[in-house]
Amino acid sequence: MASISLRNIVKRYGTGPSAVQVIHGASAEVADGEFVVIVGPSGCGKSTLLRMVAGLEAVTGGEIAIGERVVNQVDPSERDIAMVFQNYALYPHMSVFDNMAYGLKIRSVPKEEIRRRVDQAARTLELSHLLDRKPRQLSGGQRQRVAMGRAIVRSPQVFLFDEPLSNLDAKLRAQTRLEIQKLHRSLRVTSLFVTHDQVEAMTLAERMIVMNAGRIEQIGTPEAVYARPASTFVAGFIGSPPMNLFTGRVQGSTLQMQGRQEDALALPAGLHLPDGERVLGVRPEHLRVQAGGAWTLQVEMVEMLGAERLVHGLMAGQMATVRIEGTAAAPQPGDRLPLAASAEHLHGFDAATGLRLAI
What we know:
This protein is 23% helix and 34% strand. By secondary structure, it is an alpha+beta fold. A six-stranded mixed sheet has the order 6-7-8-3-9-10, with helices on both faces. Strands 13-12-11-14-20 form a five-stranded antiparallel sheet. A five-stranded antiparallel sheet has the order 15-19-16-17-18, with no helix packed on it. Helix 3 crosses helix 4 (140-152). The two termini are 41 Å apart.
């Protein structure tokens, strides 16, 4: 096993004035045995970053180190990594056993050692009864487990996962997430996992790297990123539903929205948000329905999600969502809900830069 160091990584396509830069000085440290998830919207550069670690994309600038060795110029086959892709990439004419063993066979690993490794991986992934089957005889979840088994038998220093659950339905994704968690607890191999699904990132990661437009916005544990997002992008991307963000001008104890004069939010006592153009953030679960609350939500729609309801509407002229208990009385469209929020649950950001403010 080994650590991974990303040191001011830059990636450009093309040369000269027409060059397009897609990664802008990304730096991060992944500890030996750590499971880190790279998350962000489509096109943010997360898969490109992973492919540079794998050696499938050349690095334009900066250094990538696996353990103590800088691998910028090292061939992918010499990096001692194993990669699991979105599309499984199984050989259809081979059995499950042969698919898992193929990488070892071409490395001339002795047959007895191949059998031992494949049997061990098959037991770990509950594939022992499927070793004689062909991929077409397997479900999507079973095929993905075979792809992971093929990576496990390599006994690599690093696992790289490129959106491996994207082709699975919701139930299988949840099940396979649990299997990946159990697998990591068992093997403790350094892992980088790429996904655009923030729920997937929150449930799998020991730490997460949030990317936006080729830049790293924040690195931290899921709990830290959720509780103290570093920017409005992170606040709006992490969380389901995302954080409510209200843009306006702070004047004393009031956030005056950009619009009608009467659209304003009274800031609660204890919140010290500096005057100027600001963004005020609050999670849907931190808005509570309270008689006499200083804020009012004009209800437009209610979603019933079983244990909870999401109430959507307008607050001070901007869209907002409130999370309430599923057993609570359901408000109706047109109702006006009085709301309150505590200062410790509010977040302040600079409107110009989007960066978090100390409040």
